[in-house]
# Entry
Amino acid sequence: MWAAREALTDDGVGFVGANTYKQLVRVTLKAFLGTLDDWRIPYIFGRRPPATWGRSAFEKHDMICSLRACGKLRQVVCSQLGSYDYLRGIEIRWFWIDETRDTPRDAFDVLLGRKRGGPREARRPCAVTTTPDGFNWLYDAFVSHGDKALKNRHVIYASSRSNPWLPPGYVEGLLSSYSPRLAQQEIEGKFVSLTSGMAFAEFSRADHVRADIAYNSDLDLIHTLDFNVNPLCSVILQEQPNGEVWAIDEIHVTGSARTWDATDAFLDRYKGHRGNVRVYGDASGRSGKTSARQTDYDIIEDAYRPVFCDRLSMLPTTSNPSMYESVQDVNCLLRSADGRMRLYFSPKCEYTIRDMEQVTFVPGTRQLDKSDPELTHHSDALRYYISDKFPARRVQAGGTTPEGW
# Structure
């Protein structure tokens, strides 16, 4: 509505943009053009407007919105900001950019530099709407008082709790699937750091390590693997009827470990298992090697199929999940924003617990610090399974939650 008002009241060219073309078309532009429809403003999108509307500022009209208001032609450039060199050739009087958390600051600075007009017109406001994403350039520009801050800025924090158009149960669904820190960012719109200090910040040995964690031969047995050579690591889990996930055991093989070593250790402990067996893990295990035709998962299936027969399901990831997002998935299962804890560990999972307590992010990045060869491998195996089965993604309209919650 703000952008539509600017388009109707300013004689110059405006700009409406989003981070990607898909985002622009599906969300931002849909809302902008929908507002023009609601206000019954005549407009033409992607085509040259009639000559009776006035003289167009453009030779080509791809992604140009032309509208007729107060007997005048108004025009708006609509585009993505992922690549932005083309912006250097346009002149605009105002802009609105949406979902800017992944937009380069250079693109924003180029847009500011393309604003034109006299002293009064140059003061026309520009708008940025987005969910924060840690202490990135948006924080530097709009919140901080450092040398990268804008002089004339105003920040409005809007909580999803205050949105009267959300369906019943929407926010409650988010609280059950987000960790406390992720909820502060995604629901409250606050700038918080999700990549500083401990990666698994919601883990507490006192809360999440339980002596009563026990193996149940009738429940599904989940074996999730990380194919590091030294050590070769995997975690063994079971989903409980109450929705909790228990890490009941781990396999940690040092030396020049092979996949056979992990399968032998698993079968030594669980060949008598009566329930189903599900295998998850590192997508690299799907790749063949120059020295053998079999992949790691072929080796696992060859070892497990004769023992578990049709009770075996091979469910490795087709591609490894985002490191940053899958860490948040684990944190959300450790402790959701509404206080629920669903992931627990047996004291037998010594190396996995150590990962929970000691793995950190590389400062200023979304990458885990892997400088210690003994760390991250068990938590990697855990991430592959949890991100596949319990992704902490945004709840869909209508209050539904991802499968598994």
Residues 394-405 have pLDDT under 50 and may be disordered. The two ends are 36 Å apart (CA to CA).
